Structure formats: structure tokens, C-alpha cells
Amino acid sequence: MEIRKFESFSLQDAIKLVKLEMGRDAVILSTKEKEIYSEELEKNCRIYEVTATPSATMTGKVISPKAGVGLPKVDFPKVKSKNETTVVKGDPSKYRSPLLSPTLSQLNPETRNMARSLANALNKDPVKDRLLSSESNKKSQLNENSETVEEMGVLKSEILKVRKELEALPQIDINEQVQEIKVLLHDIMREKYKQSSDIANSNITDIGIRLRSAGVSESFINQLTTWLITLDDPKTKEELLSSPEKAKDFYLSSAIKFIFKYLKVTGPFRTDQNRKKVICLVGPTGVGKTTTLAKIAAKLKVNDGKSVELISMDSFRIAAADQLRVYAKILECPFAELSDKNELIKYISKNNNHDYILIDTAGRSARVSEQMEALKGLLQVPLPIEFHLVMSCTMKQRDIDETIRGFKFLTPTSLIFTKLDESWAFGEILNSSIQNKIPLSYFTTGQRVPEDIEIASKERVVERLLKL
Ligand SMILES: Nc1nc2c(ncn2[C@@H]2O[C@H](COP(=O)(O)OP(=O)(O)OP(=O)(O)O)[C@@H](O)[C@H]2O)c(=O)[nH]1
Ligand SMILES: [Mg+2]
């Protein structure tokens, strides 16, 4: 709270000072009459001390801004935290009334003239003359007491007359008006700030709810919503206030931007120039590896006009390779069934005349260590093979995490998610890709070969996550 003290030779003058300095609504906390020793006059003088505080400080109208992450900066009127004391010391001649201060030009001509005559009257003040005179003069002048008292009486009545006339005029108090404007501005800003933070909160909460219901991890939602809160460009906030639709779009598109930044996709499988590409699909049992491989082969062959060979390395189940053999026949692609690593090395080194070699493997569970060991023995070959990990959207997050951990030894180039048509939540796709820093390549959306496959795109992920 700002508290200041004002002193003058009369109580009225001290109160006037308070109003001039702190505005009409200033609250007077206390008044005191006291005697001080004036060095200039070499005698004791009676003065009045008024302690006051501006009204805004008392009513709590002026509020300091609260610190908050990313909240819009509002230039609130400041409240001085330290107590301050203004002491008007000395004799009246030394005190220059604020009425006659540089704000004189802001008064109307009539008031200005009154103020000037008051200033002249004060300038004639014998006490001031005495102070300005030399030390010896001062003493002799002080002796002429009766003359001085008479002069002072005349001056006093003159000053009182001028003051009365001044009081009758409408007062122009610039300080008070500025203070009122400041308070008004602050109220407007506070109202706007409240509205904009309400809008921000409801939109951010809505985005959080959508992502949570899609199964996105809490840590990602926290990161995203914290970032959204920090979007505090005041110009944008101003615009958002004008339309709830605009605000909704703003927060949604910002959330999408954030997801896009972290989510990575590979795009469709592409061959390096003049080099065949060897692609191997791995993953748990029954997730759709063979069906997906057939879909990809059909897309490459039919849509892109590429030459494709299909290999089955699924000798684990009886007649497992037949499924792919049938697809190869339909697609009119060369087909081979290989049972071990040496056959694989020999086959790939020999066959150089196709754009793609697509390899299907038996389903392996990351929980069964022998199966993973067998897979290592089969696939860890000194060949440029790209491994892609196939998982179903219907798997639980925990199973997906364990599967990725189990297949890490093959350093998968991408994740393929199947059965999007059978799942309600897509958060797992985002979580697994971002947490493991493995991009997404394809999504499959049904049993039909080759139709039900799509290239993984950030737009499709976001669409599904935010139910756009
Ligand atoms: N609904 C739906 N079913 C799919 C999808 N992809 C594959 N399937 C079905 O899932 C079942 C298993 O597909 P497969 O391709 O044999 O799966 P796999 O991973 O090769 O299985 P294993 O070789 O036994 O490990 C089949 O009935 C497919 O039709 C899909 O995107 N959506
Ligand atoms: Mg299979």
C-alpha cells in the first residue's frame, strides 16, 4: 500500500497537497499538529502533517499481474510496494505549491490569472525575503516584528481572497484524471484477459479430452497442453475473443502443428536409384503381415509399375507359405520359399533383376525369448535388408511397447499398423512412434487385398486422434 506524508503550515494546505498528489479520492489516514525547529528562522514553528493513501490502494482496484506460464502480458498500473514519505519542510516561501507548478498551462485563463496573483503574493512574502537576505540583515529584519506582523496580516487576507476565488472555479486535476483512465484501462484489460483465458482453457481442455479418449499418453498430452497455454500473442488473443469459432480453429490448428512436429512418417516404400530394395515384414502372430505384404506388393506392381519378387520365410507353420504363394500367383510375381539364413543370402545375391524383394516371416512373440533368438539366427545377415515391424491397432499399449522392445535388435525402419478398422483408439500409434522415434509407413484398414491399405500420413493420424 502506498502511504505518503504531507506537511504544511496549515491543515487546509496539507489536505490540498494530498488531493493534488493523490487525487480527489485519496484517503486521509491521520492528521497531526506538531512543532518543528526551523533552522532558517532559528525558531520553533507549528506545522500540520497529513498521512494519506490513494483511493485505488485502499479499494484494491489496482491489481498487480499474476505470473503465469504463457499468459498474456498486460500492462497493469503499478502499485508501489514500499512505503514512501514526502515531507514538505522549511518555510512557506521555499515551498512551491503544485497549483503554481508547470501544470499552470493546463489551467483555463481565469484560473491561471488567479494562480499568478497568488504566486506574486507569495513572492512578496517577507519571510522569504528575509531568508534570501544576508545573515546580518536577517537578524535586524527579524527585530522589526510589529511591521512584519502587519505586512503578514495584509498578505494573509490577500492570499485567502485569491484562494477562495480559486476554489470557486472548476478544478482541473490532471493527475486525478490520468489515474481514473489508468484504472478504467486496467478494468478493461482484466476483463479481456479473463475472457481470453476462459476461451483458451475451454479449448485446451477439449483437445486434452479428445486425445485422452483416443489413448494418447498423459506425458504427451501434458507437453502439448502446456505449450498451448504459452501461446500468448496478445494480437492473436484479441482476434480470438471476437469469435469462438476462430478460437477453436486456432487451438486445434496449433495442436495439429505440435503433433506434426513430433510425428514422423516415411512415405511409401521407394527404391534407391538403380538398386533393388529388400523389405522384410516382422511382427507378432496374426497381426496381418502376410496380407499386408500382398497389399504392398500389389500397390508397387499395379500402381507404380515396379517388378516385385515375394519370399516366404515362414516355415514354422505347416503350409504357411501357401498363403503368399497364392498372392504371388494372382499378382504374377516370382515366388520363393526359403528356410534359413544361407538360402536367403544366396537368393538375394543371385537375383538382381527386380526392383523389390518382399520377405514375409513367421509371427514371433517378443515374450518368447527362443522365438526371438530363432528370428535373430534367421534374419541377422550381412545384407541391406530393411525391416518393418507390423503391429495391430487392437493390441494394448503395453503389448506394443514390449513388442517394439523385443524387435529392437533388427532396428526397424518403420512401424506398420494394421486393423485400424477394428480399433476405436489410435493414440497407441502416436505414442509408439514418438516414444520409440520410429516413423510410420503404412496403415491397413480391412481384409480386402489390395484395397485396404494406405500410406501413413500425419494428417490421417491427427484426423483420427482428434476426430476431425
Ligand atoms: N479387419 C482387418 N483384418 C485384417 C487386416 N489385415 C489383416 N487382417 C486379417 O487378419 C488375419 C491374419 O492375417 P495374416 O496376414 O495371416 O496375419 P499374419 O501376421 O501373417 O499371421 P501369422 O503369419 O500367422 O503370424 C486375416 O484374417 C486377415 O484377413 C486389417 O487391416 N483389418
Ligand atoms: Mg503370415
Automatic annotation (TrEMBL):
One of its GO terms (cellular component) is plasma membrane. InterPro entries: AAA+_ATPase, FlhF, FlhF__GTPase_dom, P-loop_NTPase, SRP54_GTPase_dom. GO terms for biological process: bacterial-type flagellum organization; protein transport; SRP-dependent cotranslational protein targeting to membrane. It is found in: Cell membrane. Residues 276-467 form the SRP54-type proteins GTP-binding domain. One of its GO terms (molecular function) is signal recognition particle binding. Residues 126-138 have a biased composition (Basic and acidic residues). It is a peripheral membrane protein. Residues 275-421 form the AAA+ ATPase domain. Pfam families: SRP54. Coiled coil: none annotated. SUPFAM superfamilies: P-loop containing nucleoside triphosphate hydrolases. Keywords: Bacterial flagellum biogenesis, Bacterial flagellum protein export, Cell membrane, Cell projection, Cilium, Flagellum, GTP-binding, Membrane, Nucleotide-binding, Protein transport, Transport. Residues 85-106, 126-146 are annotated as: Disordered. Belongs to the GTP-binding SRP family. PANTHER family: FLAGELLAR BIOSYNTHESIS PROTEIN FLHF, SIGNAL RECOGNITION PARTICLE RECEPTOR SUBUNIT ALPHA. Necessary for flagellar biosynthesis. May be involved in translocation of the flagellum. This is Flagellar biosynthesis protein FlhF.
